[in-house]
Amino acid sequence: MGLRMKILIIEKETAVAGQLKVQLEEKRFAVKIIRDGEKGLNYALSGIYDLVILDADLPGLDGYELTRRLRQKNYNMPIVMLSAECGPKERIYGLTVGADYHLAKEFDRDELLSCVYSLICRQEKRVGQLMMGNISLDLPTGTMLCGRRSVHLSQKRFLIMRSLMRDKNDIISKERLLEQIREYDSGAAEGCVGDNIFLLRKNLSSIGSNVKIMTFRGLGYCLEICESDPVCDGSRTSG
Fold it and tell me: For the residues of 45-91, what is the DSSP string, one character each?
């Protein structure tokens, strides 16, 4: 797929965030910096980031509560927590609410990078595929499988399908899908979401999938399993 791993940094201190950004971009990670907890939570919930590094002491919504909310919503991306005070009490609390690792803000560069690589590698092994109905999406290769049938997705179709399968119980707006595509292709046209949804429906049909992409007019798209539903034609009203 050739996709760069994406890391979200939610950190109020400009110097710390800048240091992290430089170190991670040197290793070819794509980095986004957010300064406050509420906005950081919204970005994390987009589902496009492979790892989150956050400040325990964020304004508005602190890092502990932010982590708890992500885990309550079953978002399982690795989370590295940073705090000025990082004694046993703080570390235990951070791990308890769902962080994978807890570092002091005066972190060692090599320890940070080792932690990031280790957590991403562990996550790839644990979540190598997304599954729904009779299909699975292989994340490392961008291949969608149904029994013995498979189809390799283009980058845009992979990004859309990955998002729909990660948030399979939610309706995802066209604007949000376009935003995710533009993270990798800034020149993507407005109509590319609809075009690629059309192609994905053909891909799903070609491999015999019982998963359909539903259009909720005025809202967006959602996946549904349609075993033998004669009205499961890919269209829904928003009523």
Answer: TTS--SEEEEESS-SSS-HHHHHHHHHHTT----EEEEES--SHHHH
Which H or E element spans position 112?
helix 109-126
pLDDT digits (tens, 9 = 90+) for 65-84: 999 999 988 777 899 999 98
- Contact predicate 103/84, CB 8 Å: no
Sheet holding 51-55, edge to edge: 30-34, 6-10, 51-55, 79-83, 101-104
The label of the residue with tokens 């400009």 reads 14
Per-residue tokens: 148: 């013995």
| pTM for this predicted structure | 0.60
Residues 180-191 have a mean pLDDT of: 86
Q: Residue 190, SS3? A: coil
Give Cβ neighbours of residue 233 (< 8 Å, ≥ 6 apart): none
Gyration radius of the chain's alpha carbons: 19
For the chain, the residue count is 239
